[in-house]
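Thread: quick sanity check before group meeting

JM: Hey all, I'm pulling together slides for Thursday and realized we never actually wrote out the predicted structure for the chain we discussed last week. Dropping the sequence here so it's in one place. If anyone has concerns about the input, flag it before I start.
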Amino acid sequence: MLAEQEAVEEQCPTGCYTNLLSPTVTGKDTIPFLLFDKKGGLFSTFGNVGGFADDSQCFESIFFRAERVCDCCATLSVLRPVDVHGDTLSVCHPCDPDFFGLEKTDFCIEVDLSCFSAIQCLSPELVDRPEPHKEKKHHG
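JM (edit): ok, ran it. Output follows.
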């Protein structure tokens, strides 16, 4: 697996593999990513099942943050998808029109990396993305 990763790194020098655990983007500590199973489908999981943690509802997410990688196992934290107002969404597609950004959570999942065929890194700017400022209309 290491040889495969090194080959990918040589072909895709701007890829995120080497930076997942220690991002190099100034002011950001998270590189969000998507995982694809061996059939090409997006991997998803759930956060806050039962609604016991904080004030948010249970949600489904396809967005993750790497916490630890050891051999073929990884601990991933589930990133909470939010709309432009910061409300929790259950997002199963990255192009969902209501999807605006991501929030870090304490919900984690252990995965066997041999079950996946691809990873797609996303912009670190999606995490804790500020709500856009609305332009004030001046009536003259």
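AS: nice. The chain has one helix and nine strands. The mean pLDDT is 83.
JM: adding both to the slides.
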